[in-house]
Amino acid sequence: MVAVSMTNLRSGLLVEIDGTVYSIVEYQHHKPGKGGAVVRTKLRNVKQGTTVDRTFKASEKLEVAEVDKKQVQYQYRAGDQYHFMDMGTYEDLALSSQALGENLNYLIEGMELEVWLYRGEAIGIEIPITVELKVVEAPPAFRGNTAAGNTKPVTLETGLVVNVPYFIEAGEVLKIDTRTGQYIERVKS
Fold first, then answer.
1. How confident is the model at residue 123 (pLDDT cuts 50, 70, 90)?
2. For the chain, N or C: smaller number of CB within 10 Å?
């Protein structure tokens, strides 16, 4: 296995701790007044979707998880299972909503993305940095409420609610940043 030092951590890196695969969500190097430097991390259990906070000594190393990636296309949902088709073999791969976590807010049928395989088992997905989603519900903008900087909440086709400028209306397609869940721009047709 390949080990990574604390100085080489980055968000999204998959590491293995005690036989469990985690994705690094956040990390922060900290040098207290006394003692050695530490690294505070927020880790997401890729299989269960839960997050944990862990602190490591700056001199420690983490094992990089040996994860294979396959190109897949999201097909459909059946109960709590989300089904993907392997673009190379046309094989069906299923993941639970727990394994998908926040990525469910950006998943639309026909979307192509990467699935992570750990020891032959699908454990999670890597979603694109930006996605285009249609607005299904938007409150109307009132005259005088269109000043720059004001926003209103709208509901997108996946159920995600984001704040957007007042001029956005239902039926429009928006580009959303999947890392922050924020509106980027309106997509021109």
1. confident
2. C
